[in-house]
Write a structure and sequence with these properties.
Layout: H1 12-25, H2 33-46, E1 52-54, H3 71-80, E2 90-93, E3 96-99, H4 100-117, H5 124-129, H6 140-147, E4 154-159, H7 165-179, E5 185-189, H8 192-205, H9 211-218, E6 222-224, H10 225-228, E7 231-232, E8 235-236, E9 248-251, H11 259-268, E10 274-279, H12 292-296, E11 309-312, H13 321-332, H14 334-342, E12 350-355, H15 362-385, H16 398-411, E13 414-418, H17 427-434, E14 451-454, E15 468-472, E16 479-485, E17 491-496, E18 504-506, E19 509-511, H18 512-515, E20 520-526, H19 540-557, E21 560-569
Parallel strand pairs: 4-10, 4-11, 5-6, 5-9, 9-10, 12-21, 13-19, 13-20, 20-21
Antiparallel strand pairs: 1-3, 2-3, 7-8, 14-15, 14-18, 15-16, 16-17
Helix pairs in contact: 1-2, 2-3, 4-11, 6-7, 7-8, 13-14, 13-19, 15-16
This protein binds one DNA strand through helix 10, strand 7 and helix 18.
DNA sequence: ACCCAGTG
């Protein structure tokens, strides 16, 4: 039986019928309700994105047909013949119980990564002859990360927000191109927005580098993993038969990469290509099943990767309560987080609010309105400064460039985040509430200065999924201002006619998933579920859900540089 | 529920 990676979308009827299907395809020696329980429990964890569970600690939450979990179920499994032949669908490896095919796939991925980590890079001999002097602005952890590419084909870099992952990446790239000219390098991330953000921060970070390196690094391609592997309806066009022609690949935001995508990547990656994986264990798990990053850092595996993994610990941003609250959430969980929130002072840079789910608290909508008003003001200022508007497509007058920069900086002042796309306090809901004064549906009725997002890759325009632009001008003169990076690495301020964009969405509010990788001065989080819900019974289902909630909330909070307002239902 | 990508 074949599985797709997005099994979360399976209809419930199908999930319930998995046992029946399995029994028909692979008849067990003995059918039993115990066996049925095991399949249901495996489906239960699968819905949470887990491919296997630890039978010694996992407590099922669904009603089991038979008592005696897990001993009597394991016994039934052993006599069923479902774990001891080639065709058997389930595997019990020590205390790990899982779907055999996925379990083996994950094992293959882990083993291939281990092999790569133990392979010496082509450049290692050259590296030893080159001065090992590293820039002084790097700390010891970061230096260690940079030199580790001299001796390992695989390097894992993990660290929370503000630990300098991007500057480490830039130094790795700088060192690599010093060692070998014409090195073929690519950068990628799981989401379009994260890829663009990476490109943006690399542009900023290379300013400190010598001219030659700066030019080479700022023109590096930076795309989604799907795009790099040329995903299409027939799967990935980059594969074993058509591998990527690369010497070094950096993948950022690894926590969002699932098993299927990782397999596709390794499948398309030449043996001698160096791989640098970067991520944060505390951030979001992938949407599909099989969190590769969290598996690599799990208790029983992480020691195998010690030789090639670097943990960036030193946090450069010190943000008072903001830092304290995110540390509490990550380290102690939701209960401690809610408790601490009650003790926050009034002038804290982390505020809790309650509101009715039908509205946004007035002072938050004030904040949003003020933000929009500033964007509106700057965009009409820009419009006035362009003498040949709307005939031009690229902004080149220095004065206009300055104003456009002001617009994009202003965009980074405020970020409104929601866990969901639809429903109460979703991205859609916020947009409906904020655009209420603009009754006509469609972009022409939205106010000038309003942020919009491209929901699709449009390479012919140099536009990636997740790129955010600003509405300029009205009616037939309406254009969207995008900050794009051309192929030669130059920053381009481009005005695009709305009709040329295939999919355009309001981008005042973002899903937390999309926000991963970017940051803003202030973050407003609308959290529609109750954080204070008592969690008395500490069983595993709650823990899985809670772990997910923690990562989601943690990701949202850590987008903020200066301030967070967290709003929960009253 | 969330991501990516392309199509009926």
């Amino acid at each position: 039986m074949s599985f797709r990676s997005d099994e979360d979308t399976w209809p419930t009827g199908f999930v319930g019928a998995v046992y029946e299907v399995l029994v028909r395809r692979i008849p067990p020696k003995t059918k039993s309700k115990h066996l049925h329980d095991i399949v249901d429990v495996l489906m239960e964890v699968l819905c949470k994105g887990e491919l296997y569970l630890d039978i010694t600690s996992y407590k099922p939450t669904l009603d089991l047909r038979e008592p005696g979990w897990p001993e009597s179920h394991v016994k039934a499994l052993q006599i069923s013949g479902w774990i001891d032949s080639d065709k058997s669908p389930i595997v019990l490896d020590g205390s790990q119980l899982g779907w055999k095919r996925w379990y083996q796939d994950m094992k293959l991925v882990v083993n291939e990564l281990l092999d790569r980590s133990n392979t010496l890079p082509k450049l290692s001999s050259i590296a030893s002859t080159v001065s090992s002097k590293l820039p002084d602005e790097l700390n010891d952890e970061q230096k260690q990360a940079v030199v580790s590419i001299d001796s390992h084909n695989l390097v894992l870099i993990s660290g929370g927000p503000g630990t300098g992952k991007t500057s480490t990446i830039v130094q790795i790239l700088a060192r690599s191109i010093t060692l070998q000219r014409e090195l073929r390098v690519a950068l990628c991330a799981p989401t379009g927005k994260a890829a663009r953000r990476l490109q943006d921060s690399i542009q900023k970070a290379v300013r400190h580098l010598p001219q030659i390196k700066r030019e080479e690094l700022s023109s590096l391609p930076c795309v989604t993993l799907h795009r790099l592997l040329q995903a299409g309806t027939r799967g990935f066009q980059r594969n074993k038969g058509n591998p990527l022609s690369l010497d070094l690949l950096v993948v950022d935001e690894m926590s969002m990469v699932d098993l299927a995508l990782m397999r596709a990547l390794l499948n398309a990656l030449p043996e001698n290509c160096q791989l640098v994986l970067v991520g944060d264990q505390d951030q979001l798990p992938p949407v599909g099943s099989g969190s590769v990053w969290h598996t690599l850092y799990s208790e029983h595996l992480k020691n195998n990767f010690l030789h090639c993994s670097i943990q960036l610990q030193h946090v450069y941003r010190n943000k008072g309560d903001l830092e304290m609250m995110s540390r509490t959430l990550r380290g102690e969980g939701l209960v401690a987080f809610v408790e601490k929130s009650n003790a926050l002072k009034n002038h804290s840079n982390f505020s809790f609010h309650n509101a009715s789910l039908r509205n946004i608290p007035p002072f938050i909508s004030q904040k949003i309105k003020a933000h929009n008003a500033r964007l509106n003001e700057f965009s009409s200022e820009l419009l006035k400064s362009i003498s040949s508007y709307p005939k031009i497509s690229t902004i080149e007058q220095p004065q206009s460039i300055e104003i456009a920069d002001k617009i994009f900086n202003c965009l980074d002042d405020l970020m409104v985040l929601c866990p969901k796309r639809k429903g109460l306090w979703s991205v859609d809901h916020i947009h409906r509430l904020c655009l209420r004064g603009f009754p006509e549906v469609g972009i022409n009725s939205w106010p000038e200065g309003f942020p919009v997002m491209s929901g699709e890759n449009q390479p012919e325009l140099g536009l990636a999924n997740g790129d955010i632009g600003i509405l300029i001008g009205e009616n037939q003169d309406r254009r969207i201002l995008f900050k794009l990076i051309s192929e030669d690495g130059k920053l381009n301020l481009t005005l695009i006619h709305p009709a040329r964009l295939h999919r355009l969405e309001p981008a005042l509010a973002l899903t937390i998933h999309k926000s991963q990788g970017s940051e803003a001065k202030e973050v407003v989080i609308l959290w529609p579920s109750d954080l204070k819900e008592p969690r008395i019974d500490i069983n595993q289902k709650r823990r899985l859900n809670e772990l997910y909630e923690i990562r989601l909330l943690y990701t949202a909070i850590t987008r903020a540089i200066e301030r967070v307002d967290l709003i929960t239902p009253s």
